[in-house]
Amino acid sequence: MQLGYAPHITLAIYPDETPVKRLHAALEDTSRNWEALPISLSGLGAFPGNGTVLWAVPVVTRELLARHQAIQTALPDLKVDAHYRPGAWVPHVTLSGALPNPGPALMALLSSWEPTTGFLERVELVRFRPVEVLYSSVCRQSDL
Questions:
Q1: Is 46 within 8 Å of 106 (Cβ atoms)?
Q2: Closest by Cα among 4, 81, 69, 84 to 34
Q3: Which residues does 33 contact at the CB level (< 8 Å), separation at least 6?
Q4: pLDDT digits (tens, 9 = 90+) for 67-81
Q5: What is the pTM of this model?
Q6: Could you tell me if 142 and 133 are in contact, meaning their C-beta atoms sit under 8 angstroms apart?
């Protein structure tokens, strides 16, 4: 994908006019004690529409849901994008832009797909198109 940004799971999207200082303060305060979060990508998904977007499916854990909820709780009066509201959010790692014919890309992914594991080890506040990192913090390493 041509986003120009590392693979990630987005916890929230707010309108461009949202005050950056407010988002930064809430994110910094909320994520201050977060540890790197183990994550497993177990399969593939597709968001259909005007072009299909392919994505990797993370195993949804209590910890991942808690991080999503923590952001919502920190900014209760701000209007989050409808796809990122609690109860509507579909955690994902985007693999493609909108594809008019996703068949060939999906077949290529399926032919070599293997579940994988890793860590969500960074929290960032990002403005995009083009990507601009406004705040970045490394999560603490687990004692395990």
A1: yes
A2: 69
A3: 140
A4: 999 999 999 999 999
A5: 0.91
A6: no
